[in-house]
Amino acid sequence: MASCLKPSSPTMSRTIEFFYDLMSPYSHLANWRLPGVAKRSAAVVVPRPVSLPELLVLSGNQHPAELESKRDYMRRDLDALGRYYGIPMEWPEQWPVNSSRAMAALALLEGGAQQELANELFSAIWDRGENIADPDCLLALLGDSLWQQSDSDEARQRLNENTREAYERGAFGVPSCFAGERLFFGNERLFLLQMHLNG
């Protein structure tokens, strides 16, 4: 696996910064749709892992799982969207899943190495219904070296820095995509992101 390097802060106008948390099913959909948006817009996707619970605290927002009616609606909505996009959606038994250590691991990586691992972890949760909060499950997905590093102060600090940056730039949840300093929130706003990039 690639060495652990701190992600850069891209400034290119044709860059899509993708702030996400694995626990978010809408981030799962956006993760698989963004490569198409980037291709049609001649842009590059830069994944930026954050802690959704911490972002919600910072912004004063509420997790949808806290509202029973919204939680029930989300399941129907996401099942329908998954079928529409052709993206597998298998709700894990444990949701919201505690993704904090997995997100810390992702924060240690950059570029293709991070995206490859994010793809595998999104699939584990939302395609295969695995519980990444289970240490044995996450260890098998990360490998021993990254598993050990994911519990370090450095990993948590990088994740916290990403989360704080997202909040300071106006994000209040995930998925949040930035083109420059223009925020596009939610999987359902990706068409507006593409329109913006294509001018």
Can you tell me about this structure?
The chain is α+β, with helices and mostly antiparallel strands. It has a single domain, classed as Glutaredoxin, CATH 3.40.30. Helix content is 53%, strand content 10%. It contains 9 helices and 4 strands, in the order βαβαααααααββα. It has helices at 25-41, 52-59, 68-85, 100-107, 111-126, 135-142, 144-149, 153-168, 190-198; strands spanning 15-20, 44-49, 176-179, 182-185. It has a 4-stranded mixed sheet, with helices on both faces. Helix 1 packs parallel to helix 9, helix 2 (52-59) crosses helix 8 and helix 4 packs across helix 8. The chain is globular, with a radius of gyration of 16 Å.
Descriptors:
Glutaredoxin; 199 residues; four-stranded mixed sheet; 4 strands; alpha+beta; disordered N terminus
Give me a quick take on this structure.
With 199 residues, this protein is α+β, with helices and mostly antiparallel strands. It has helices at 25-41, 52-59, 68-85, 100-107, 111-126, 135-142, 144-149, 153-168, 190-198, and strands spanning 15-20, 44-49, 176-179, 182-185.
